[in-house]
């Protein structure tokens, strides 16, 4: 049946327009955004879980490889300036690993529940007014998990480097650890720029 009602006023939105999939400025439909978001969410959770398990496994393996005297503090040049017993070193590594993983797991759990007053991202009010607070919280959770995963990798590399320093006889951190640390700093910086420059800006996030 043809619609015989009055034509829509200029600038008004018809019911068909309201029911149509929302498109981003990149040509993505709402279903595309949901699909990508689901993959991103699962990826963040899996990567965080895998890196947590690897970091914990490294501590268990280190407990059987470390000698009785272990370098546990290093100067700017990578040379050891303090030592501990194997028990103290393993305890430190275990607390570091579980503490970092637990911290970011708690942050990821808290993000969907925290008061929006604590959230400080670009265009926060526009997300809320558009009824997309749930998606905003999802992105916050994903970022917490991904940053936690990168931190897990840094902790994992620290455990391996400490075992190598103690076993090599040099009592010095290997050069590759500084490369990993520099990469972690770079990745963290790039992620922060991406968050404030694109990921949460309404005009670039599918608003």
UniProtKB/TrEMBL annotation:
The keyword Transmembrane helix applies. InterPro entries: DUF1648 (IPR012867). The keyword GTP-binding does not apply. Keywords: Membrane, Transmembrane, Transmembrane helix. The chain crosses the membrane at residues 45-66, 89-110, 144-163, 175-195. It holds the Pfam family DUF1648. Residues 1-10 have a biased composition (Pro residues). Residues 52-97 form the DUF1648 domain. Residues 1-28 are annotated as: Disordered. This is DUF1648 domain-containing protein. It comes from Kineococcus radiotolerans (strain ATCC BAA-149 / DSM 14245 / SRS30216). The lineage of its organism: Bacteria, Bacillati, Actinomycetota, Actinomycetes, Kineosporiales.
């Amino acid at each position: 049946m043809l619609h015989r009602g009055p034509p829509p006023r200029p600038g008004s939105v018809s019911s068909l327009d309201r029911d149509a999939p929302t498109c981003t400025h990149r040509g993505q439909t709402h279903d595309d955004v949901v699909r990508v978001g689901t993959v991103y969410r699962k990826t963040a959770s899996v990567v965080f879980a895998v890196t947590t398990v690897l970091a914990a496994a490294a501590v268990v393996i280190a407990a059987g490889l470390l000698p009785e005297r272990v370098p546990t503090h290093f100067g700017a040049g990578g040379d050891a300036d303090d030592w501990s017993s194997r028990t103290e070193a393993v305890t430190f590594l275990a607390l570091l690993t579980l503490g970092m993983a637990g911290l970011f797991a708690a942050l990821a759990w808290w993000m969907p529940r925290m008061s929006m007053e604590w959230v400080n991202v670009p265009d926060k009010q526009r997300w809320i007014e558009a009824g997309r607070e749930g998606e905003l919280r999802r992105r916050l959770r994903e970022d917490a998990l991904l940053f936690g995963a990168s931190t897990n990798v840094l902790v994992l590399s620290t455990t391996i480097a400490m075992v190598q320093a103690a076993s090599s006889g040099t009592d010095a951190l290997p050069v590759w650890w500084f490369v990993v640390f520099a990469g972690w700093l770079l990745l963290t910086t790039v992620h922060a720029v991406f968050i404030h420059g694109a990921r949460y800006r309404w005009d670039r996030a599918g608003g």
